[in-house]
Amino acid sequence: MLARGRAFSPLRNRNFRLLWSGLVVSQTGNWMQFIALGYLIDQLTQAPIYLGLLGVSQAIPRLLFALVGGVAADRLDRRRVLIVTNAIMMGSAILLWLLAYTERIAVWHILVIGAFNSLTQSFDAPARQSLIPSLVPERELMQAVSVTSVAFNGAGIFGPSLGGVIIAAVGVKGCFFINALSFVAVFLALFLMEFTDTTSGQESSIADDMREGVEVLLRHRALLTVLATVAILSFFARPYVRMMPAYAREVLDAGPTGLGALQAAPSVGTVLAVFVVGALADVVPKGRLMQGAALATGALVVLFGLSRWFWASFALLVLTGLCHSIAQAAANTLLQTTVQPHQRGRMMGIYSMTVFGMFALGTLPTGALGGAVGIGPALAIGGAVAVALVGLLIWRAPGVGKL
Q1: 200 within some domain
Q2: Half-sphere exposure of 323 (CA within 13 A, CB side)
């Protein structure tokens, strides 16, 4: 009971509760769109390489603009940034719905819109994540990061499952339409929040701010190891998320509803991770928590790639989501609590670039390898490489485990 209270203590703060509630609704729609895009590309091409190309189209804008988005989060009103970014993403969901409804949607449409959404998210993610410390006490920051991951990944429990049912009933256009409507919840939350945002107020140039963000990272060498751990997991282990449509079809012979269940499984683990983080946040050093969870994530992806039974795959995905969420929550907290408040936007820009950019880039080699040796073995190889590289980092930088 005490661990559960600590886990969800950030929700006692009204502003954080509003932000979290809006995200739960909007991310349910976003997960429905995510599964619909993957399913549509797989049905149009039946080639894993195209799922990889979708990842690359989303990776390039994030890698190019995430640090700029971090500077914007430090210089501008973060709430206004979020209003603009969510309005843009709502518009792109409407466009996808129109293309699907008129049966004119093609692979190139999906790639271009995916790239445009990724560009928008380059500004959305740093503003949202650097806003959290303004909404909760610092002692609750790690729990707040973990609870926020529930809004994103936990909504994946309902979104993919519901998306699979809707795809089977009315097609992918239904998922796009519901996603567009879901953004209304974010707008309501942002307009109802009452707080004073903290930005840098500096008159320096954007280039100087970007340079300062990199210099801050270089001054804290341990944070480079934290980011390297995140990059390894994102590039080598996490592509299973994007490869799920091919895995469900090729390995398990599962249809849209089975795909929805598989896509939802890691999010079940994300919800469970909130309780683990609540219990261990004040007991185990965040660095050690990150390292142990990262090793476990890679090992679980190996087992998932080798699995050929639906329910075994489902259980492994739950555990993978649990461990990966713990690793990310610990890494995010270490990054935000090490730098000054007015530098958090840039740090979260770099973090966002690493998490999503490397994940999206990793889908291309995984998809290409999957086309050559099968998607299951390709995922297993990626997980094994992740375990080896994270183990190397632990050996070379043992001090991180004491943070």
Answers
A1: no
A2: 21
Domain containing residue 118: CATH number: 1.20.1250.20
Length of the chain: 403
pLDDT tens column, 35-76: 888 888 888 887 777 877 887 888 888 888 888 888 888 888
Q: How far is residue 200 from each of residues 77, 122, 131, measured CA to CA in Å?
A: 10, 19, 13
The verdict on residue 198 lying in a domain is no
Q: 86 with 94: CB under 8 angstroms?
A: no
As for how many domains the chain has, the answer is 1
Full domain range(s) for residue 347: 2-192+205-402
Q: Is residue 141 part of a domain?
A: yes
Write the pLDDT tens digit of every residue in 99-145: 999 989 999 999 999 899 989 998 998 888 888 888 888 778 778 87
Backbone φ and ψ for 201, nearest 5 degrees, come out as 65, 15
Q: How far apart are CA 242 and CA 123, in angstroms?
A: 22
Is there a domain that residue 138 lies in? yes
Q: Residue 399 to residues 194, 287, 294, 327: CA-CA distances in angstroms?
A: 40, 9, 16, 17
